[in-house]
Design brief:
Chain lengths: 135, 147
């Protein structure tokens, strides 16, 4: 009976964590960090924004994220999608505190981070985040 | 350990529902193993993780069950996923199942229970919440172990 109780408690805690994980996954949040340079990512920035995606080999949703961000930026001349392998950029990964893949940073034209989504991002949220606001 | 930048040109893609079904069976088997202290169930799980991690998830027992029994009954198409993610998770599972097996044969209770429950947690997260173990821990391991 003792092990049944343990199992129930573990299941409950796991479920709480799982629900938290699902709610937060891929949501775009405001974030600040030291600016990234074009040399560090090995690519030029978009003239307005850059979607900098960190991927890794054992990452299942990285493929879908790549396709999604590629699709969103396809028709945009001022927003660029750059996908880099986290493993071969460990210094940058530490500097920006990237913990899991895919992580997508939204960088302005100077390479300053304005937001990030941890996990496969949601289309509407990315579109919202990169749509210019005319005030 | 895999070498940095080792990237096959085109990764093999699999039906993403396969690993979810595999994780579902895994959570039932490990949950039962934890409750009954069954060495047999842990050995079955060890076999699954060994083939799934070191050969291919497609040829592992639960993967075969999915492909022969479940998949033919499913409708609809799927977007293929990179096989390396699920295979990495199976390798991690292998380590836990191996520890649990040692625990079972040496009669060290905690060496059995703790790895079983940890692997159970990972299986629940994978099966129910579509959690990708490779995404969450692989990069952290790289950050810790590599300069």
């Amino acid at each position: 009976m003792k092990s049944a109780l343990t199992l129930v408690i573990v299941l409950a805690l796991t479920s709480l964590y799982g629900i938290w994980f699902r709610i937060n996954r891929g949501t775009v949040k405001a974030h600040t960090n030291p600016a990234v340079t074009e040399e560090e990512i090995g690519a030029t920035f978009g003239s307005r924004l850059t979607l900098l995606q960190f991927s890794s080999a054992f990452c299942t949703p990285c493929r879908a994220t790549r396709a999604l961000l590629g699709d969103i930026t396809k028709g945009l001349h001022d927003v660029k999608h750059v996908d880099i392998d986290a493993e071969s950029h460990l210094e940058l990964v530490r500097k920006l505190d990237i913990r899991s893949t895919p992580t997508t940073l939204i960088l302005d034209h100077r390479g300053v981070e304005v937001g990030r989504a941890v996990g496969a991002p949601k289309r509407e949220q990315v579109v919202d985040a990169i749509t210019p606001m005319d005030i | 350990m895999t070498k940095v930048n080792e990237k096959p040109a085109i990764p093999e893609l699999i039906d993403p529902r396969g690993p979810r079904v595999t994780a579902s069976i895994t959570l039932i088997v490990l949950g039962a193993a934890f409750l009954t202290h069954s060495t047999l169930l842990v050995l079955i799980q060890l076999l699954q993780f060994t083939i799934g991690g070191f050969v291919t998830p497609k040829k592992a027992p639960y993967g075969l069950f999915y492909r022969k029994v479940v998949q033919p009954r499913l409708n609809g198409s799927f977007i293929g996923e990179d096989i390396r993610g699920p295979q990495f998770a199976q390798k991690v599972g292998f380590i836990f199942a191996l520890l649990a097996t040692i625990g079972a044969f040496t009669k060290i209770d905690l060496l059995f229970s703790i790895p079983v429950i940890l692997a159970f947690v990972a299986a629940v997260l994978n099966a129910v919440f579509d959690y990708c173990l490779g995404c969450q821990i692989y990069l952290l391991l790289q950050r810790i172990t590599k300069r």
